[in-house]
Write a structure and sequence with these properties.
Elements lengths: L1 E6 L8 E6 L8 E10 L2 H8 L9 E2 L3 E9 L11 E5 L8 E5 L4 E2 L6 H21 L7 E4 L5 H12 L3 E6 L2 H8 L5 E4 L5 H8 L5 E6 L6 H6 L1 E9 L20 E4 L2 H4 L3 H16 L7 E6 L3 H9 L6 E5 L1
Parallel strand pairs: 9-10, 9-12, 10-11, 12-13, 13-14, 15-16
Antiparallel strand pairs: 1-2, 1-4, 3-5, 3-7, 3-16, 5-6, 6-8
Helix pairs in contact: 2-3, 2-8
Amino acid sequence: MIKAVVLHTPGGPENLSWEDWDLPPPAAGEARVRQTFAGLNYVDTYLRSGRYPLATLPVVLGREAAGVVETLGDGVDTVRVGDRVAYSSHLGGYAEANNVPADRLVSLPDDVSDELAAAMMLKGMTAQFLVRQTRPLGPGDTLLYHAAAGGVGLIACQWAKHLGATVIGTVGSADKAARAKAHGCDHVINYNEEDFLERVMALTGGVGVDFVCDAVGRTTIEKSMQALAHHGVLASYGAASGQVAPETWAKMPPERFLVKTTLPGYTKTREQLLAAANDLFAVVRSGAVRIEINQRYALKDAAQAHADLEGRKTTGSTVFVI
């Protein structure tokens, strides 16, 4: 038995329960990780609330964690007992231990701490596929990034700026505007004070931007479409404000491109997973991207962390200390 944060019924943060959890031995191809830190991500709230339906209940949430390999199932040769590892996109992070498919584990370099890994694996590799794969950015490109002061946003905006792009970020407060400005944004728009589409068009001379990253969803997506330049790309990878109505996608202007993206879609093979992780480690190691861990919670306080995240009280990355 281990301690874990368990969801029995979809709903609000209060539905998260700190309790004993029976973790079986690792199956063939799995490794048991004794977890030291876990990451908090917006997708966790989608799963908790039922916006993204879960196949089975009860379940341990959390899709990003780091720790030490404790035991191995049969046939595992990609990691060894004692290895420091991290993972993303696999449920079970909100627990003292988790059984993870070994081919989904990334061994951590000596200069990447467990806490840093838990803060950046899912968010950092999401930023990686956006700015390096979905629409590779470089000098002369323009990016509009929504929620620029969030966990993925702070990483993606720094990375895009490092690649030479002009970065426009949207935020919801003056404090978040200052944070986004300090992390790669050339221009910051407080969407509670001005129309982001009007400002984008003014900043680009009416041309629009080459790339829009939108995980906000319903409240921003139509104007995100209109903000695109000719042959611009819109990446939709979340829906913090609510799911986009199917008929809305038909409003996409001609000769623009829509891509609905997910991290698992860019890390299907182990080779793809390791390439994305190593790219992330390299850009962090270089100092071009700083990972800001701005909130730390005890794992048993996951309900409060979810409430703070949904209440827009957090910035940057948030970790659970296990």
